[in-house]
Prior knowledge:
By secondary structure, the protein is of the alpha/beta class. It folds into 2 domains: 6-106 and 233-256, Udp-n-acetylmuramoylalanyl-d-glutamate--2,6- Diaminopimelate Ligase, Chain: A, domain 1 (3-Layer(aba) Sandwich), CATH 3.40.1390.30; 110-227, Udp-n-acetylmuramoylalanyl-d-glutamate--2,6- Diaminopimelate Ligase, Chain: A, domain 1 (3-Layer(aba) Sandwich), CATH 3.40.1390.30. The chain contains 9 helices and 13 strands. It has helices at 6-16, 51-59, 84-95, 104-108, 113-118, 151-162, 193-196, 211-219, 236-247; strands at 29-32, 42-46, 64-67, 98-101, 123-127, 130-131, 138-139, 141-149, 168-170, 182-191, 203-208, 223-226, 253-256. A 6-stranded mixed sheet has the order 5-8-10-11-12-9. A 5-stranded mixed sheet has the order 1-4-3-2-13, sandwiched between helices. Helix 2 (51-59) runs parallel beside helix 3. Belongs to the GTP cyclohydrolase I type 2/NIF3 family. One of its GO terms (molecular function) is metal ion binding. InterPro entries: DUF34/NIF3, DUF34/NIF3_sf. A divalent metal cation binds at residues 69, 107, 229, 233. This is NIF3-like protein 1.
Amino acid sequence: MSSVKLNDVLSALEKFAPKSLSETWDNTGLLLEPYTPRDIKKILLTNDLTEDVALEADNHGCEMIISYHPPIFAPLKSVKQSAWKERIVSLLLEKRISLYSPHTSWDCVKGGVNDWLVSAFPVLESNPITPREDPNTGVGRLLRLEKGISITDAVTRVKKITGLQYVRLALGKNKVMDENSVQTVALCAGSGASVLKNVTADLYLTGEMLHHDVLDAAQNGISVILTNHSDSERGFLKEFSTYLQNQLHNNVEVLVSARDKDPLTTV
């Protein structure tokens, strides 16, 4: 395995999902760059950057971490050992590990996180719920299916693509589990309530929604599947690892974190 320059990785990331696709409130792009640069031989992909994941990257000898969620969001007033996010920053700079976060740029881009979720369904047509200037990009996805499927089938498909044993389901009013009543699906990876609100569909799919948003949808006859926030996103990393390694001509090894997991589990 040879190596590439940091700028080569940044160019490949920007080619896949330009930073301009990010929401204005987001904090995306290169977040940490060590004073003394290193060529990149190993990259670790993670959905959330915890201390365990940062240590995992160091143990694997990674020179770079790509964290889907930006671990640096609110401004840091210090970098000390008393707070976990500051400890991560301190560790990465000491170990000369670069950090990049794509977040909402990966949500909006064609072929990104939301389109990975779309692939769970037999789709006739898929469009962003809130399109950008390029209508192929934007927030969320509204699907028209090739054929009607049941809620039971939809749940099975979501479990398969996410690798989850359990999801949470709110059955829409007057809907039946095994009837092929799902013709349209509105989905948004992560926390999708604000994106899905008032969208007409038979099924909403997202990571998390507030109780009253779920209640409102269900009472309006819309079924809701919730996976937990990051479980609606994490599975995309496996696909992206292959893409990035190919884009970098196999000159780097792209790993997916084994320590990264949603903080919530069903017990």
